[in-house]
Amino acid sequence: MNQVIKKKEVTFFWAITPIIIMMVCICTGYFLYGIRAEPLILIGTASAAIIAKFHGCTWNDTFKSICDKISEALPVILIVPSIGFLIGAWMISGTIPMMIYYGLKWINPEYFYISAFFLGAIVSVCTGTSWGSMGTVGIAMVGVAIGQHLSLPVTAGAIISGSWFGDKLSPVSDSTNIAALSVGANLYSHIAHLLWTTIPGFIVCCVVYTFVGKSLNVSSVIEPESVIALISSLDKSYHFNILLLLPPVVVLYGSISKKPPIPTLFLSALISIILALTFQSFSLASIGDSVVSGFKLNMLPKSVDINSLSPDLYRLLERGGAVSMFSTFVTIFSAFSFAGAMSATGALRIVITALTKGITSTLMLVATTIITGITICGCTANGTLPLLLAGDAFKDEYKKRGLASVNLSRTLEDAGTVVEPIIPWTASGVYCAAITGVLTIDYLPWAILCYTGMCFALLWAATGIGIARISQDTPQKTSEIA
């Protein structure tokens, strides 16, 4: 007769042990040895599984819990490679290059700082990548500031604010999609709810950068050679026309009308492919490579001499493709595996119960979420993990209190995605400091969008403004979300 193993109640000590192990592994592994986060998360998963074993859970119990956790989000996770597919299509059709081209030409020298902010926002909204925006137009704008003896901390703060504005709101940004999927929220509902904390911050940025720019009288600013070369290279490489705006219009329409994201993304990509064949003279083979493996400049027609193009064009355009999202895919699976192993014994519930004990208001819950998000971001030097770990951990608590999931996903972005570049030792903090040549502590006051989101999140939680209730946002089935 098979012996039935009785499951034992997990104490708080054993419940939090896997989290501590994972945090220690990530801190030491990342800072001392440069090890990627995914294998370190899996060490935490293994420790959670071992603890589950000693508390009466079989391997099958733990494995089933992991599979259940991943399967809950699987339809939404499929959005991730779809985004890579779409970016590859937008690149080869000329949609993203055209937006960048006119964005660069639009710079108004009389309003330099606000122009830097807007340009960073335009590029990151189009590409869904803050790092890409920083590594291209960010470098160009810093060059302008150096040449004209303008404030580098203000310039860096403006570019960072703009770049992370797009990373936070763009439907093709991985962080935007991860935040929504981690709590089971509809992507477009999540983006719409983000506006409550992002638009006020955007307005504050506009006022501050405009005022500072006018007070410093920067009307003599001229475009540096790098910007002129980039504009010229884009003009040589593509044939621009208004029809290239059709793909983003499709995504915008899908967002407003709340159509299912995956069909909307693929329809936009299909239109982009047709535009690439019609206007850009790319071969079908190149288009196929672009949507799968990412766009490369050597795909340009032979009539374009790629050796004469600006080096910045490589960093700006060589991206996209479904394969490019594999790293994000692995991170998501690793994080949900950890959450699944923790759920096998109810450890995650025990930790969250302890964290939320004594919380009597929405303000206290949002504040706890913000503190948790910043702590995870600071401890792991990663802005994605707060979205995944805190999102899965807190979603039941929000539901229990009658709060719609979009409140949680919004707060996670306010305390995770946009906070990363103002923490000096995180990947984004180090990257931004290296790109701009400005210490994090120096540009921090001017990276206004990176901290105003948290301030407005707390304000709305205290007043009840911009807080969605479950009755206003009926939970959807996972299939409907995707």
From TrEMBL:
User: Which keywords does this Swiss-Prot/TrEMBL entry list?
Assistant: Antiport, Cell membrane, Membrane, Transmembrane, Transmembrane helix, Transport
Is the Transit peptide keyword given for this protein? no
What topology does the record note for this protein and the membrane? Multi-pass membrane protein
Q: Which InterPro entries match?
A: Na/H_antiport_NhaC (IPR004770), Na/H_Antiport_NhaC-like_C (IPR018461), NhaC_Na-H+_Antiporter (IPR052180)
Q: Which named protein is this? A: Na+/H+ antiporter NhaC
Q: Name one GO cellular component term.
A: plasma membrane
Q: Which family does it belong to?
A: Belongs to the NhaC Na(+)/H(+) (TC 2.A.35) antiporter family.
Would the keyword Transmembrane turn up in this protein's UniProt record? yes
Location(s) in or outside the cell: Cell membrane
PANTHER family to which the protein is assigned, alphabetical: MALATE-2H(+)/NA(+)-LACTATE ANTIPORTER, MALATE-2H(+)_NA(+)-LACTATE ANTIPORTER
Annotated GO molecular function terms are: antiporter activity
